[in-house]
Amino acid sequence: MNSSYGEGEAFNALKFLKKNNLRSSARVSSPVERQLFNIDIMTTPDGFPASFYGEPGVLGILSNGISAFLVLLQNFSTAHTGISPVGVENILAGVHLILIGGLCQMVAGLLSFRKYDHLSGTAFIGYAALWSSFGATRIFFGALDATPITYMAQQNNLSVSSNMLSNLSLNATSGIPVCHLCTSLKESAVAGLVPFILLSFILAFCSATVNYIMPFVFGAITGTLVFEAVGLVSSSWALVVSGVLELLILIFAIYGSAALLIKGLTQRLALKGFGTPLFNVLLLGTTNSGKAQNVGQEKKKNTKYAEPMALGFFCDTVSPFIFAFYSFGYMKSFGLGATWVSIITVAQLFSSYYAHLRQDCYHTTKFGLHATYWLIKAWDEFVVSALVLEDTIVISGRGMMVGDWFFVMAGLVLCVVSLNTDVLELIHNMLFVLLTVSTIPQIPLKGYYIFFGVACSLFTVASLYGTFARLINSIAEKSLIPAGPQPISSDQLKKALKCCRAEKGDQDSLPLMDQASDPLFYLLNGVAALSALTISSASTNPTFLHLTVPWVLISGGIIQAYVSRLQVTGTGRFGSVIASIYVAVWATWTWFRFAGNLLQFSRQAAYAFTAGAIALLVINAFLMLIAAYRNLVLLFLTAVMEVVLVCLLLSTVQRLPLQLEIAMLALLSAICVYGAMASLVNCIFSQRLLPMGPPLIKEAAKEESAAELPCPVHYSRLTSGLLKIAGILEAGGVCGIPTDTVYALAASCKNPQAIERIYNIKDRPAEKPVCICISNVEQLVTAKPPFSPLLWEFMRNVYPGGISCIVSKGDWLLRLGVGPAYDRVGTKDSIMIRVPDHTVTCHLCDITGPLAITSANPSGEPDSTHHSMVINRLGHKIQGVLCDGDSNEVVASTVVNCLKIDEGTITIVREGCVPAVKVRQIFERVKSSTV
Fold it and tell me: Could you tell me the pTM of the whole model?
């Protein structure tokens, strides 16, 4: 097999083989079917249908094995000596678990998502959260340094009470010298382990559709978690059983990682175990052919990154389960619980991040919002546990908080847009609304936690089912586990929103500066603004001040810093400037208005904040100018924020107009609700459906940008434009051109130096070859390559189109016109050929001869689907762009290795815009007719 080819992000054959092999093993299971199909989706006739292929799999499996080994040593030592590890021993074990099982496995999960590996991406990041949480638990136990009094208090806390806060109050007045954040450690650990047991079982079951090694690894992890939980509340026999299972995890991990590593190095299946799944994934159900297509959510199939939906549901299972245990009184303190929820929240942010990379605005917003909610609630309850407050004091503080109402409105927004997805998403969002309603602070305290616990329980069940359904359907790439049809068609939803436009208007695309992270930006600022709303009596209530800190700081500061990271890689002209500045605004607001009152800052200290507030006022004035380039909604937001900052400035000199501040914060929240709704709907449908208002200085921006374009631009609809781009290519330039998939960088094969410059322009690794593009198959016929009749017939059936074929190199390339570029394209022995189904590209090839092409994006970033993206990202490095508007696809071509086609075998190197199933059907039809 060759090394890498392709138009998208730098990739190689190993990168995509795992995915296609998985499908071949699932769909072609019997020997008769394999003989009939006779398509090797991997590198050898043996096949290698493993989802865990290549380096990420090795790292992830070994991380699980080594982590299990660390726990095994402690368990066997405890069972043998009867003495539990304490102090530094526990702390060191916890640190190692976080570093190895957490960070190393997290890297494996992130790489797996980039390799379009649904199962291993979800599993590795999920288990990374597990081992990190387990390590944090060890650190808590080590820090506790069990003294007889503390240990006795811990044991007394094992009794379950119906009123958690009453128990805290009793503990506070009992005179027992125990840190309340360190109580209920065992109960907290059990509450965290139980959902991971359920989810690990699901992962073990799903991995059985891939191979018969990973089910044993994940199954052993499931059993280990069961007995670890039992060992926390029982005798040492459970630790012995857990140790045996951890030994099995280590053995299977060593064998599995060795098999993957040897396979990756030798391209041969030297060790067995990954060749056949335990059962065919298609046995789980039949495809729902009547399912409505979710055209709004993701119009084109995106195979650059794995689907993060299962990981998002995974995280939405763990957090509410822990809260349910806490709400029903099983845990009396949320110190360790806050740590478990915080760690799983990081994993959920990764699901939001990869949804953003897939240009999936809906899941970017949903999982980001859920992560914000869980993190805020975790640290809200942490504050209650840390302060050990009486019920009446908690009621007085929470009764003045209104930030949760914004989560209710945000949940309703998600309900509306999920009408365009499926029933599962709608139910999940409705339960999230119920969850947010249950935590409205104005609910009486006696019913607050019961209501919250019930809502968390229902949400956990829905999330658990969602994890299983999304994971199985992602692996099979079919709707096997029912998620329900689309509740309302896209057209009906538009009419319901009273935003249906004429046919011509419906095709208007969003401005380039609109980003998939915009809805989350509005939601976070709305939560922070409404949470910061303070009445006169609240400023002197220490409970209110303590409880409000996480609401404003987490939403406006911490999670908004994540949004600014998303916007750094976005296509917006001003990137993450506004989000980054507002991180500083809300952090300053929290520090001065809430922490400052608690710390009782002196007047001199307040004057330092006066200077800071003046600086923020000046900076926000520039942000208003930036917003004027975007839309009216953002401009209104920044204008209201300017008044809010004036209130902050006046508060530093004890001249706060409280009524004005309340009105402005409420108005800011209202703007954010509409901004989130409009930007989310517009982004999902890729059309301007809900008005955001025009940019105020639109014309000035156009004139300025026209005068300062980084490279010449020409339009594909003009013959003169096509000729000018051809002239640039003939002269040795590199240009961005449209294709039938995504935009590409092109260089003439007559100029090898131009091909070399492509690598520098993209920061593309030298070992990643580029392909050649020609206008029609007849050009190949003229070059007289030594192709077999089967290969000729196959190429005639797939060209022109979104399929690229890898064939052997030879002197025929010189006759084709590749000439001096022979050594600059392809590998030493092979070349990938593209014949695009795009009139403009084919005419360009007729003028210039064969072109060397690769995707027009910096290596590692998403493909360019509009000529403006090429100009913004690479315009300063290239010599021209042929503008053709939106691309036909959002992913690159499907790459097929035809080197062994004479043996009746083709290899799907990468699935792109043309599904692998269709390629196989074409090949079977061609092979049958040729034979």
Answer: 0.75
